[in-house]
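User: Quick sanity check before I run a bigger batch. Here is a single chain. Can you write out its predicted 3D structure?
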Amino acid sequence: MTLTITTLAERPELQGPMWQMPDTWPAFMAEDPVGWACYAHVPAEFPEHVLVATDGDGEVVAHAFSAPFRLEAPGRGELPGMGWDQVLLWAFADLRSGERPDTVSALDITVATGRQNEGISGRMLTALRENVRRLGITTLVAPVRPTAKHLEAESSIQEYAFRTRPDGLPHDPWLRVHARLGGTVEAVAPASMTIPGTLDQWRAWTGLPFDTSGPVDVPGALVPVHCEHERGYAVYVEPNVWVRHTV
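Assistant: Done. Predicted structure follows.
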């Protein structure tokens, strides 16, 4: 399959089609407050770190967002337990203060609806690695959302992250893609993304009743959503898996 991958800085005209590209993310995943505040600004502030893939017909079929930040800074040094949310905040804080980045974090690799299982995600990850190297940074990290974890939401993320097959590769398919490209599972980010909402909001996002306090299994969620029915809210705290790539 013909696939052309460029940065948004090289082809800014793709920004509109990129945002219009249909995807398969669960609706609630777009409701993270940090994402609301920061994610939409990534193309404007870090266009060299946004990759867009088009097929032979010129249609946008995937994009990859990433952001540079300084890991070796006071109060940092380790990949954060707050994962995706934290690196977004660090990236924009460093941009404002003029910090020189030493690390790039992947934020997401999204493939268009109907174009899964064509090997596009692996090609986007390879391109992301190459782009980080081109920009003169030697470390790419990723707070990976394991693609099969939602099938066993009650399982421990710590156990799941380091679970391997007999051949030594990770059990999870998306972690396996990272490993095959040289990535190393380093740690768990237990609170990578926090999505709070009223019960009415969660009902709208999921179509579920949210009428009982306690854990609620939500399709697409990696762990149960915690519902406080009497208090009128529910909170989803998503764990991710930190993978490090030396590029």
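The CA atoms of residues 217 and 224 lie 5 Å apart.

User: Great, the batch can go ahead then.
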